[in-house]
Specification:
The chain is an alpha+beta fold. It folds into 2 domains: about 130 residues, no CATH class; about 170 residues, Rossmann fold (3-Layer(aba) Sandwich). The protein has 13 helices and 18 strands. The strands form 4 sheets. It has a 7-stranded mixed β-sheet, with helices on both faces. Strands 7-6-14-3-16 form a 5-stranded antiparallel β-sheet. Helix 7 runs parallel beside helix 8 and helix 8 packs parallel to helix 10. The longest helix is centred in the N-terminal third of the chain and has 22 residues. About 35% of the residues are buried.
Length: about 375
């Protein structure tokens, strides 16, 4: 267990290129024209070398994974939908679903699902036509790895009241996640404490929950950013569940940056907060926007009983999410890419969809890109 915090970065000063003064030439027979054949090739070579040294950036997107919740007009979960019931577009480009899964069932290729339902699978038809250079084997295996849930608990001085009740609610939530592959438990006040790394040992996680103590000011966005960076390193479905009892009062990281990183990494954020946080309209708006952007939800509990209900709702949500993935078709956009997930018209009128609304591809340096290419060619 160790703590980590984010401090304000120091000022960076960038020195510009040196400016050369006038050339002072002496002698009657010395001509500037005589220097040009010598100076110009040197300048051209230097410029070419500088361009070669500057790293080129390319974007590689192996596979985009989406966690999609489908509910009816009454908020009840809709089950037994098929891949052909969903329409996925990226920047307006229609995408082909490559893998599909519902709830706790294993994620499968769309072709395999067709064969299981009695329809013979056509490998040539079901294979994605726009595979990236790095291939798809590792990406598919990552989907089959299971769910990883990161619990982030507010132990700041906002938590002096109801601390034990919050621990009870989180402990019940951990016990209820029977089908989740692994759970990690973090706590935060001014700094982030990684109390328990990802593990399938529920007793170890419960012990970490019980040993937390209330502490300092609340740096929620700083610590949430660090948690998301940790979660992004793992494969499979990634979920961050935050319990916050109050607004953030010391972070240097804006919540918009935290939300964008979670969206780009495909991490769903759920937030359980108390009525104390809801009294701050800024925090309320931020919590709702952040969770909605990632496909999660925000809950505001008035008492310990509603806290347990919120965690129970999150557990049910995880058990009913559809897992979709696709290989993006050719797209020149290297910035923010918008994702739209809809149902076919005959179902769209009856049901509602909740998922993340986009992502930003991660740029790779040319050296990393070439290494990735070489590794692919050797496989």
């Amino acid at each position: 267990m160790f703590n980590e915090s984010i401090s304000r970065p120091s000022d960076l000063r960038v020195r510009g290129p040196m400016f050369f003064g006038d050339l002072i030439m002496q002698g009657k027979h010395f001509s500037l024209i005589c220097l040009l054949p010598l100076v110009l090739p040197a300048l051209v070579l230097k410029s070419a070398a500088q361009e070669e040294d500057q790293p080129a950036f390319r974007v590689t997107v192996n596979m985009v994974q989406l966690n999609v919740a489908v509910t009816d007009n009454k908020g009840n979960y809709v089950s037994n939908l098929r891949p052909e019931d969903f329409v996925v577009t990226e920047d307006g480009i229609a995408e082909k679903i490559a893998t599909f899964g519902e709830g706790d069932s294993p994620v499968r290729r769309v072709g395999e699902l067709a064969s299981l339902n009695g329809s013979p699978a056509d490998p040539a038809k079901d294979a994605p036509t726009d595979l990236p250079a790095s291939g798809n084997v590792g990406s598919l295996n990552s989907l089959l790895a299971g769910s990883n849930v990161f619990v982030l608990f507010d132990t700041s001085n906002y938590m002096y009241r109801g601390f034990v009740y919050a621990q009870d609610a989180i402990a019940d939530f951990v016990r209820s996640l029977e089908s989740v592959n692994r759970i990690s438990f973090y706590s935060y006040s001014r700094d982030l404490s990684r109390a328990m790394a990802l593990t399938s040992d529920r007793s170890a996680v419960l012990s970490a929950v019980r040993t937390t103590v209330a502490g300092d000011d609340a740096a929620l966005y700083n610590c949430l950013l660090l948690t998301i960076k940790d979660a992004a390193q793992y494969t499979g479905r990634k979920v961050v569940v935050v319990f916050s009892n109050g607004p953030d009062n010391v972070s240097v990281v804006p919540p918009e940056d935290v939300a964008e990183l979670a969206q780009s990494a495909g991490i769903v954020i759920y937030m359980v907060s108390t009525q104390q946080a809801q009294l701050d309209p800024v925090s309320t708006a931020v919590f709702e926007r952040m969770t909605a952007a990632t496909g999660g939800k925000a809950y505001f509990a008035k008492n310990w009983h509603e806290q347990k209900q919120a965690f129970s709702s999150i557990r049910d949500d995880l058990a009913h999410l559809y897992s979709l993935s696709y290989y993006p078709k050719a797209n020149p956009n290297r910035g923010w890419r918008s994702i739209s997930v809809k149902l076919v018209p005959e179902k769209a009128r009856k049901y509602r969809i909740r998922t993340r609304n986009g992502y930003r591809p991660v740029p790779l340096r040319s050296t990393d890109y070439r290494a990735d290419q070489e590794q692919t060619q050797t496989q």
